[in-house]
Design a protein that fits this description.
Helix content: over 70%
Order of helices and strands: HHHHHHHHH
CATH architecture: Orthogonal Bundle
Structural class: mainly alpha
Largest sheet: none
Number of domains: 1
Mean pLDDT: 78
Distance between the termini: 27 Å
CATH class: Mainly Alpha
CATH topology: Rna Polymerase Sigma Factor, Chain: A
């Protein structure tokens, strides 16, 4: 498991706003997987998530000056990801039915990249269980467990009360546990 380093991302955003392309590359290395995982949880297509990830880093390059150093860098990046993904979905609503998700495009693929120590069978079970979660719960789980973003920041990104994020996270873990236990039986 890996996490995004909040302090490092904040410093890199400051350098990007000053025009550093090297800092942008480092920021991509630091936060790219988290951006991809979160985008994937929204758009539910690997190709579209890659497009969103690229768009996010282009937007970061263009708008890094709007980030305030006293803010939360990861939250700012995830909010940008959220908005970019939703914008893309609005443009493609006729192409992406809400309930369709192929195995190749499942959120578990980004989890597989982040957690290589999990067996292929376990990853398939996890992927299938994640598919069964409601979109918001899937987003919360991926932001918290994969991106390592605190629940308070997730609440800001999703524009929800922290208590709702906490409750949804616990409910999603319980659902995942029940689904995974059922699969093992």
């Amino acid at each position: 498991m890996w996490c995004v380093d909040e302090a490092k991302c904040g410093a890199l955003l400051g350098e990007v706003s000053a025009g550093s392309t090297q800092a942008l590359a480092e920021l991509y290395t630091e936060a790219g997987r988290a951006v991809f995982a979160y985008a994937l949880s929204i758009v539910r297509s690997r190709q579209l998530a890659e497009d969103v990830t690229q768009d996010v880093f282009v937007r970061i390059r263009l708008t890094a000056g709007h980030y305030t150093p006293r803010g939360h860098a990861c939250g700012w990046i995830m909010r940008l990801t959220h908005n970019t993904a939703l914008d893309l979905l609005k443009k493609r609503t006729h192409e992406l039915p809400e309930d369709t998700l192929s195995t190749d495009e499942a959120p578990g693929n980004s989890l597989a990249e982040a957690t290589r120590e999990v067996s292929a069978d376990e990853m398939l079970m996890l992927r299938e269980a994640l598919e069964k979660l409601p979109r918001m719960q899937r987003q919360i789980v991926l932001l918290y467990l994969v991106a390592g973003i605190p629940q308070k920041e997730i609440a800001r990104v999703l524009r929800l009360p922290v208590t709702t994020v906490n409750w949804q996270y616990r409910a999603s873990l319980k659902k995942l546990s029940n689904l995974l236990n059922r699969e093992e039986s």
